[in-house]
UniProtKB/TrEMBL annotation:
<feature type="domain" description="Phosphoribosyltransferase">
    <location>
        <begin position="49"/>
        <end position="157"/>
    </location>
</feature>
<dbReference type="GO" id="GO:0006166">
    <property type="term" value="P:purine ribonucleoside salvage"/>
</dbReference>
<feature type="binding site">
    <location>
        <position position="156"/>
    </location>
    <ligand>
        <name>xanthine</name>
    </ligand>
</feature>
<dbReference type="Pfam" id="PF00156">
    <property type="entry name" value="Pribosyltran"/>
</dbReference>
<dbReference type="GO" id="GO:0046110">
    <property type="term" value="P:xanthine metabolic process"/>
</dbReference>
<comment type="similarity">
    <text>Belongs to the purine/pyrimidine phosphoribosyltransferase family. Xpt subfamily.</text>
</comment>
<feature type="binding site">
    <location>
        <begin position="128"/>
        <end position="132"/>
    </location>
    <ligand>
        <name>5-phospho-alpha-D-ribose 1-diphosphate</name>
    </ligand>
</feature>
<feature type="binding site">
    <location>
        <position position="20"/>
    </location>
    <ligand>
        <name>xanthine</name>
    </ligand>
</feature>
<comment type="pathway">
    <text>Purine metabolism; XMP biosynthesis via salvage pathway; XMP from xanthine: step 1/1.</text>
</comment>
<keyword id="KW-0660">Purine salvage</keyword>
<keyword id="KW-0328">Glycosyltransferase</keyword>
<keyword id="KW-0963">Cytoplasm</keyword>
<keyword id="KW-0808">Transferase</keyword>
<dbReference type="GO" id="GO:0000310">
    <property type="term" value="F:xanthine phosphoribosyltransferase activity"/>
</dbReference>
<dbReference type="GO" id="GO:0032265">
    <property type="term" value="P:XMP salvage"/>
</dbReference>
<comment type="function">
    <text>Converts the preformed base xanthine, a product of nucleic acid breakdown, to xanthosine 5'-monophosphate (XMP), so it can be reused for RNA or DNA synthesis.</text>
</comment>
<dbReference type="GO" id="GO:0005737">
    <property type="term" value="C:cytoplasm"/>
</dbReference>
Amino acid sequence: MERLKTRILEEASVLNQDVLKLDGLLNHQVEPELTLEMGKEFARLYAESGITKVITVESSGIPVAFATAMALGVPLVFARRKKTLIADPDAYMERVPSFTKGIVTDIMVSRQFLKEEDTVLFIDDIIANGDAARGLIKIIERSGAKLAGLGIVVEKSFQAGARTIREQGIRVDSLVRIKSLEGGTIQFE
Ligand code: 5GP
């Protein structure tokens, strides 16, 4: 998406060689029109996949996942981050390390909202090492639902996340791929 690349160059700042600050577009402020465009693009890519639900992890994945669900005409489910130590028998739970916060959180999806008969499209904002994605993929697998693929807004392809997930045989589509942040410069693939 060329427009997204332009907006990233205008809005993003490189914090260090691994981290891009995208508060103006994804993590703090969102642009409704651009977000709707992203959703339409994911919906186009998965138009023939029989998607019954879009799924994401709160919170930054929600706007673009909502836009995708809207374009596909299906519900959106977002995995919630839980602080409780009590296991909920009615929920799927996974522990995931957070790339930016340096802490571990539990993500959970109620069994009520993810069923064996579902075909899901997993949407997320940014992929780095892929820990968050792998956590939700495990939950989807445990539910018996079919995972059609993973739609990512920004793939940092110099980190291993998306590659290792593709190696697992899972389809991954990224709207933009960044191959380097070295020297404070954003380089797209
Ligand atoms: P992963 O689990 O793939 O290592 O990291 C995924 C999550 O960490 C993303 O959903 C995103 O919220 C956050 N994250 C990873 N890398 C970056 C980055 O360069 N910039 C920002 N703003 N968030 C990031």
